[in-house]
C-alpha cells in the first residue's frame, strides 16, 4: 500500500484518483464505481465525490491501494 500525503483536511475521491494518476478525468471514476471496483476502508463506494480523510485506505481493484496521510508543514 502506497502512502499519499495531502496538504488539506479532505480530498474528494475523484480528485484524489486524478491527482495520483489512476484516471485522466474526474468523470472516469463513474465507470470504476459502476463496476464496483473502488473500496474505501473496505467499504464499496457508490459516490464519486466521496470525501477522503487522512487515515483512509483506498483500493481500486487491479490498479492499486493507497493510504492517505496529512502532510505537516513545518
Description:
The protein is of the alpha+beta class and 74 residues long. It contains two helices and seven strands; from the N terminus they run E-E-H-H-E-E-E-E-E. The strands form two sheets. It has a five-stranded mixed beta sheet, with no helix packed on it. The protein has a two-stranded antiparallel sheet with strand order 2-5. The radius of gyration is 12 Å and the shape is globular.
Specify the CATH class.
Alpha Beta
Percent range of helical residues = 10-25%
Strand proportion, as a percent range, falls in: 25-35%
Ranges with pLDDT <50 over ≥5 residues?
none
- Count of structural domains: 1
Strand order of the largest sheet: 1-7-6-3-4
Structural shape: globular
**Would you count the extended β strands for me?**
7
The separation of the N and C termini measures: 26 Å
Question: Structural class, judged by helices and strands?
Answer: alpha+beta
In CATH, the topology is named: Structural Genomics Hypothetical 15.5 Kd Protein In mrcA-pckA Intergenic Region, Chain A
What is the average per-residue confidence, as pLDDT, rounded to a whole number? 92
**What is the CATH superfamily?**
RNA-binding S4 domain
What is the name of the CATH architecture?
Roll
Biggest pleated-sheet summary: 5 strands, mixed
Give Rg in angstroms.
Answer: 12 Å
Return the string of H and E elements: EEHHEEEEE
What count of helical segments does DSSP give?
A: 2
